[in-house]
Amino acid sequence: MRLSCSSALRLADLQVGSTARLHDLQVDPESRAQLRALGLTDGSMLRVCKQGDPCVVQVRTTRIGISSRIAQHVFVVPTEGRASGELRWR
């Protein structure tokens, strides 16, 4: 498995309150389509609200529960040096 961005992490490894930009969904096509339909699109901003099972993330104005198994295959790039209020949600 190769990631084009060396700073990409698994969603499951972020701490609660962390913000990040979606980098890659390394899941089966059905799960990919479902996550995209829920708002996890390329480059979308998200905030981790809860870790565990489910992992809860906020995407735009919606909170989404993602199984811990799937969260292991969602790769994100953490945002640094920006308060959550300064993020520009897409």
Task: Summarize the structure in words.
This protein is of the alpha+beta class and 90 residues long. The chain has one domain: Roll (SH3 type barrels). 14% of the residues lie in helices and 33% in strands. It is built from 2 helices and 6 strands; from the N terminus they run ββαβββαβ. It has helices at 29-37, 68-71; strands at 9-10, 19-25, 45-50, 55-59, 62-66, 74-78. The protein has a 6-stranded antiparallel sheet. Strand 3 and strand 4 (55-59) form a beta hairpin. The N and C termini lie far apart (28 Å). The relative contact order is 0.30. Residues 81-90 have low confidence and may be disordered.
Keywords:
6 strands; alpha+beta; SH3 type barrels; single chain; six-stranded antiparallel β-sheet; 90 residues; disordered C terminus; 2 helices
State the order of secondary-structure elements, H for helix, E for strand: EEHEEEHE
Q: Regarding CATH, which class? A: Mainly Beta
The strands making up the biggest β-sheet line up spatially as: 1-6-2-3-4-5
Mean pLDDT: 86
| N→C terminal distance | 28 Å
Structural class: alpha+beta
**How many domain units?**
1
Characterize the largest beta sheet: strand count, sense, and whether it forms a barrel: 6 strands, antiparallel
Please give the number of β-strands. 6
Question: What is the tally of helical segments?
Answer: 2
User: What's the CATH superfamily, by name?
Assistant: Ferrous iron transport protein A (FeoA)
The CATH topology label is: SH3 type barrels
User: Beta-strand percentage?
Assistant: 25-35%
Question: Mind telling me the C-alpha Rg?
Answer: 12 Å
Q: Helical content, roughly? A: 10-25%
CATH architecture descriptor name: Roll
Q: What general outline do the C-alpha atoms trace?
A: globular
Outline the low-pLDDT stretches.
81-90
